[in-house]
Write a structure and sequence with these properties.
The chain is α+β, with helices and mostly antiparallel strands. It is 23% helix and 32% strand.
């Protein structure tokens, strides 16, 4: 996507601890609207930023092209933490809600997650790879074969007991 970032409308999403050169550090993802010519704005997840940082955030100016992948918006549920509109801290990635709070109404219904190389000590730290679906195959194999073995043992014990009573 090509456009201009509106850093004055930046927000933060989520909460995540990462290992940094100063040790484990709490942070969040920076969400910034990207204004595009003749199109609705799109919220861009520029990457992870620490809460307490010694360096300024990298904020390139002018027309920029952002490369990444699309992430659909989320819906708030009963157990979702409450968003803090005044602090622009969100825990549900709902582009419509975030856009309305930061002053960028009617953004696209999805978020663009920026990808790029991570530069040590520079923030935000963009995504390094596409999201991966869960791979639970090994745990499924262990579970089902374990249940099958347990069933064979129980059946063997039942057969042994049944054969003893017949003789």
């Amino acid at each position: 996507m090509t456009g201009r970032f509106r850093y004055d409308q930046a927000a933060q999403f989520g909460a995540e601890v990462r290992d940094t050169r100063t040790g484990p550090t709490m942070g969040a993802y920076q969400i910034v609207p990207l204004e595009r010519n003749g199109a609705p704005p799109i919220l861009v997840d520029r990457g992870w930023i620490p809460q307490n940082r010694e360096t300024r955030l990298d904020q390139p100016a002018g027309m920029l092209t952002v490369t990444g992948y699309v992430r659909p918006g989320d819906v708030q549920h009963w157990f979702s933490p409450t968003d803090d509109d005044a602090a622009r801290q969100f825990f549900t990635l709902d582009p419509q809600t975030i856009g309305a709070v930061v002053g960028s109404p009617k953004p696209e219904p999805y978020t663009l997650v920026a990808m790029g190389p991570e530069v040590t000590g520079a923030y935000p730290a963009p995504a390094q790879h596409l999201p991966r679906p869960p791979n639970n195959h090994l745990s499924y194999v262990i579970t089902w074969y374990g249940l099958a073995v347990a069933l064979l043992i129980i059946f063997g014990a039942w057969m042994r007991k049944a054969l003893r009573h017949d003789t």
